[in-house]
Design a protein that fits this description.
Blueprint: H1 2-5, E1 15-19, H2 25-34, E2 39-43, H3 47-59, E3 67-68, E4 77-78, E5 81-82, E6 90-91, E7 97-98
Parallel strand pairs: 1-2, 2-3
Antiparallel strand pairs: 4-7, 5-6
Length: 107
């Protein structure tokens, strides 16, 4: 976690975002930092990872972490994602198209 909080350390009662939350390990640590009155808003576009994230949050009784099953990007549209089951999974460069229906919606 020190790698993520070297330049910015969340304080109690803050609202922070975990974009690409995967299984929620970072979100859980951030949740402890912001405390029960704070919030960690997570975004995870991969359905399988999102299910794992939600299960981990339930197991850890993390009530201050809402989950949004969507990607975050600079424009609305669709993107193709690499779903290889590793931490390196993510956006496949060059596949982003604006306003096209498909998987991996950006919000």
């Amino acid at each position: 976690m020190p790698v993520y909080t070297r330049k910015f350390r969340p304080l109690e009662n803050m609202v922070v975002f975990d974009v690409g939350a995967h299984a929620g390990l970072t979100a859980l640590e951030l949740s402890r930092m912001v405390g029960p009155a704070g919030k960690v808003i997570t975004f995870e576009p991969d359905d399988a990872a999102c299910k794992c994230l939600e299960e981990n949050l339930q197991r850890n009784k993390a009530l201050n972490i809402p989950v949004i099953n969507a990607a975050v990007g600079e424009a609305s549209g669709a993107a193709r994602f690499n779903r290889d089951g590793t931490q390196a999974a993510g956006l496949v460069e060059g596949w982003f198209t604006r306003r096209r229906r498909g998987s991996g919606w950006c919000v």
